[in-house]
Amino acid sequence: MGESQGHSIPVIRTEPTASRPTIQSLLEFENPWRKMDWGQKEALIQRLEDFTVCRSDVQCIKILLVGQIGAGKSSFINSVNSAFQGRITSAALVDSSAACSSQSFTQRFRTHRVRTANRYLNFSFCDVMGLESEAGPQTKEIINAVFGHVKEGHKFNQENPVTLDSEYFEGNPDICDQVFCVVYIISANPVNLMNERLMEKLRIIRGTISDRGIPQVTVMTKVDETCPLVRDDLRKIYISRRIKHKMELCSNMLGVPMSCIFPVKNYHEEIDTDDNIDVLILKAVDQIVHLANDRLMDEAS
C-alpha cells in the first residue's frame, strides 16, 4: 500500500484576552487616590496644641456639628478628645441603645471645649439635636445657632423653637458666640439612602450660611461598617473604591467639594486609642480649625 495521505490538524490561534477583574481590583485602587502620612499623629497634635485664634478678643473659636440622628456627632467629639488625651473619653454623652436610631440622644445646645490631658485648646465643638426628616430642630434654629443667637443649654423642641422673646435667644451675640465653620456629620452607611426631606433641610442650612461665607466641611463616619477592606485595615481607606464612591455621593448631594470631605472612624467599642484612628480624626480637625480661623480673619478685615 502506498503511503497514507493523512490530514493535518489545523492550529487555532487566538488573540490574548484581557484578564478578568479580580475581587481585590473591584474593591480597591492600585494606588491611593489621596495621600496620607500615617506617621503624622504627633505633628498634628503639636500643630493643634499650638493653634491660636487670629483675634485677641476671641479666646476659643466655635465649630458647629450638624447631622442626622445616629451619624455620630457626639461620638466624634469624644473621639477628638480621646485622640488628644491618649485614652477613651466620653464628655459628650452617647446613647448606644436601639432607640438612638430613631430619636436623637442630644436634646440641648452644648459646647464642648477640646482639651489635652493638661489644658483646654483654643477651639470647641457645638453639639445640637440630630436632624430628622419630620421632627427634630428646625433649620432656622440651626442657622440661629451658627450666628450666635442660641444660648447654651437651649432644649430643641419642634413645637417650641427659640424665638426673639425666648429665654435662650441671644439678640446681640458677641463674635465669640458665633460659629465660624459648620461640619456635617454624615454616616457612610446610609449616605445614598438619605431621606429627601432631610437632605432638603441640610441644603437650606448650607445655602443660608454659604451666603455669609461660613466654610463647611463633611466628616463621614462609620467607614469601617460600610467597607470590609477598611474594616480589616484602616490604612486602606484611600484605596477603597467604596469609600471614594460614598464620598462622591455625599459631595453631589450636599455640594461640599471632595477636598472638604473627611472619612473617619469614631471610637465605639475600643478601650484603647489607636494611632490610625487618631490620624484620620486629627487631620480632619486640623483642616476644620484652620478654615474656621481663616473665616474669622476675613470677618476682622
Structure notes:
There is one protein chain. This protein is 33% helix and 13% strand. The protein is an alpha/beta fold and 301 residues long. Helix 4 (139-146) packs parallel to helix 5 (196-210). The mean pLDDT is 85.
Look at the structure and give the mean pLDDT: 85
* Largest sheet: number of strands, sense, barrel closure: 6 strands, mixed
The percent range for helix content is: 25-40%
Distance between the termini: 110 Å
Shape annotation: globular
Enumerate the strands of the largest sheet in spatial order, edge to edge or round the barrel.
2-3-1-4-5-6
Beta-strand residue fraction: 5-15%
Order of helices and strands: HHEHEEHEHEHHHEH
Q: Radius of gyration in whole Å, from Cα? A: 25 Å
Query: Helix- and strand-based class?
Result: alpha/beta
- The total of helices stands at 9
Poorly predicted sequence stretches spanning 5 or more consecutive residues: none
The number of distinct β-strands equals: 6
